[in-house]
Amino acid sequence: MEVIVPFSTDRPKSRLSSVLAPEERVAFARAMLDDVLDAVAAAGGEPRVLATDAVDLDRPVTVDDRPLTDAVNGALDTRLGADDESDGPPEPTAVVMADLALATPATLDRLFAAGRDADVAVVPGRGGGTNAFVASHPEFRVDYHGASYLDHREIAAAVGAAFETVDSHRLGTDVDEPADLAEVLIHGEGRAATWLREAGFALDASEGRVSVVRE
Amino acid sequence: MEVIVPFSTDRPKSRLSSVLAPEERVAFARAMLDDVLDAVAAAGGEPRVLATDAVDLDRPVTVDDRPLTDAVNGALDTRLGADDESDGPPEPTAVVMADLALATPATLDRLFAAGRDADVAVVPGRGGGTNAFVASHPEFRVDYHGASYLDHREIAAAVGAAFETVDSHRLGTDVDEPADLAEVLIHGEGRAATWLREAGFALDASEGRVSVVRE
């Protein structure tokens, strides 16, 4: 299954600016991307990075500088829809965000399996985002604004696509805000967790829900 | 499978005090408890509430006013350990927190299945807590302080218990803080979601991750 991984090269992870300097955010975002690409490949997916600008990678890259929704819909047009020149029903295509630092092959396997059963399978992120999906319905398109998980459920219903929700804490955790870094330190097994530890981050269990401190 | 549901009758959900009055927190906590108990029963579990004080319920209730860790370990002593008077290996026992307002029979099924395969199966909560577990190892005991998921993994290793992590956003979402209410409005299908809507809460997608507003 082809797995598109959107990646913004322009000021990535701005909501981490209170805890990471600009060049640190670039390095951390890249570590998460590499973790995601490795997990996708280990799960048998064929990753393709959909980047806003050129990026130096040993993986296939498509550059598209449009906003996320337009770029992903462009990719879906080619693979599922109007521009699909193959015969028969479209092959399922996955879109997995580049900041899912807790992604593992096993969790991606669950997503891919759900996407073979349903026309559209979505992993909601915390706060109602759409962290990952698989679609094989020719008319399904995305709109990432706001609580996009609910919007995508409605879009699927509107085009008559069978919809499934994939229940995953790992894939549901997009790393956007300082509190999310705790999840990486607790569950992460790859470059992103190592990067954080080497940058001095540690868990802080001194009050309520566990957070992070930097030494 | 017996499923113990710890429930505090004393000032529940204090971390929601910025958005809910004391009597509202009592009503909302009760709505979540009822949702959890219904989901457990629908998944084939036999729920038993482990309450800090008497509570009016049509389900079995054990009152134990000790702190959470001691009360749960007391229950495990009876079922798995020193006080277990049955022959053969202990039956798996589950402990599921009362504030998992997104629990569904399907997600609990996954937990119960994992708990039949492994000696200890844990669902980590956001921030490294232990939202639910199933244990059948006679020596496994809990310590809910801090990042208890990591501690429970270590405790299981120390007693030689096979450990499995269950990856679930629904069961990983314990409703403690105002931001968690958005998850209930997005995914909840039971009394807790209805209670919030009737209390005037709605999703607010005006900035970053979706949150809630009260009308």
From TrEMBL, chains A, B:
Keywords, ordered alphabetically: GTP-binding, Nucleotide-binding, Nucleotidyltransferase, Transferase
EC number, as in UniProt: 2.7.7.68
SUPFAM superfamilies given in the database record: Nucleotide-diphospho-sugar transferases
Pfam family, one: CofC
The reaction(s) this protein catalyses: (2S)-2-phospholactate + GTP + H(+) = (2S)-lactyl-2-diphospho-5'-guanosine + diphosphate
Pathway: Cofactor biosynthesis; coenzyme F420 biosynthesis
Gene Ontology MF annotations: phospholactate guanylyltransferase activity
Assigned protein family: Belongs to the CofC family.
General function of this protein: Guanylyltransferase that catalyzes the activation of (2S)-2-phospholactate (2-PL) as (2S)-lactyl-2-diphospho-5'-guanosine, via the condensation of 2-PL with GTP. It is involved in the biosynthesis of coenzyme F420, a hydride carrier cofactor.
Complexes and interactors: Homodimer.
The name this protein goes by in its record: 2-phospho-L-lactate guanylyltransferase
Species the sequence originates in: Halorubrum ezzemoulense
Underlying gene: cofC
